[in-house]
Amino acid sequence: MKAVAAVGRRERGKLEKQARIRAAARRLFAKQGFDNTTTRQIAAEADIGAGTLFLYAPTKEDLLVGIFHDEVGRAVDQAFARVPDAPLVDQLLHVFNVLITHHAAHPELARVFVKELPFVDDPQHGVVHFIADLYGRLGSLIDAAKERGEIEPDAPTRLLAHFSFGMCFGLMQQWLGGRLAPLRPSDERLRVALELLLRGARTRE
Fold it and tell me: Which of 35, 51, 20 is nearest to 115 (CA)?
């Protein structure tokens, strides 16, 4: 029993330290950007040694992806858990609006995500799998719309999922880059873009 308790304490200690490291990295990334943040700064902010940091996250990319999964991954899970019984365009907007709301609450960190993560393509980091899973979940909404007779059965599910998210991501890039007025939930610009995308895929009466 003592051995089990000791293992439990060690695991809790590891999880607490990992959380402290990610919290430190999050603060620094949001405050001074990804490029201007060093692993030594993160270690100091987390009050650990640089060698200890390396055991938990060998690179800054590892930390950024971990933070992304913690925050954006949780937001995506919540969005799909509460998809409304509504037309496809409203379901897609529901999912994307959750992302927009999350990023609007943390714009400095969102800018880091949008700038850096598209270039993190190492499968070990999990970003590729995250995007593939997101497309799959969007595809499930599209396939359900086909079953309802809302979308043509031969409409390309994968492409619709890809392009619909691409529209949302493109608008977020412009917004976070200062080239577009801030997005808000139920933004008409996104609705219009999705309506145009889906127009050609809708069932013709």
Answer: 35
